[in-house]
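Please predict the structure of the following assembly.
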Amino acid sequence: KAGVTQTPRYLIKTRGQQVTLSCSPISGHRSVSWYQQTPGQGLQFLFEYFSETQRNKGNFPGRFSGRQFSNSRSEMNVSTLELGDSALYLCASSLASGQGAHEQYFGPGTRLTVT
Amino acid sequence: AQSVTQLGSHVSVSEGALVLLRCNYSSSVPPYLFWYVQYPNQGLQLLLKYTSAATLVKGINGFEAEFKKSETSFHLTKPSAHMSDAAEYFCAVSTNYGGSQGNLIFGKGTKLSVKP
């Protein structure tokens, strides 16, 4: 089975711009979660989508948004970029049937640099 | 609320020596616990997970972890370090109440160096 894929892998944007990142989960996985990784704050949960619905959201400003499509692919969008948004954005997918501890499988991440 | 504390941001061992990476958690409900590894410029790879089935959990690449409720710990060990184990290791906790599986809470990570 193919793993989680994320595009693009690297991105350079300017302050004030917006950006869209894409994530394709493992086939059959219906849950997609997004995380931000920075040297200072570590790994922080952004949001989770399941069957096109946001089920859980972390403590990030409204500039961060996401969505999930009927094929489980997900996108996240960051508007009005700030320097502090420079980070590795990781997507993870899981079966998430609601029972048991379903492990999350991570993609390679998108490295976003804001200048 | 859940939280994870990893003691030691950097750990250095010699090749062939015991690896011990410490993780303590805080959770008001029975937790699920995970260890992930991250190699440079890559995503996270699951090493092992604790789901209450057994307190000693064996994972990939010779790693194992023991859940100790009394100490609220889930330390990761490997009897003999290999050069290829050099990476950053993350302990994470989650709960599955309400069916939401997305909220992994990570520790700050421990960077493991292996000396020849």
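Chain A has a mean pLDDT of 92. Chain A touches chain B at residues 4, 31, 33, 35, 42-45, 47-50, 55-56, 58, 90, 92, 94, 96, 98-109 (CB under 8 Å).
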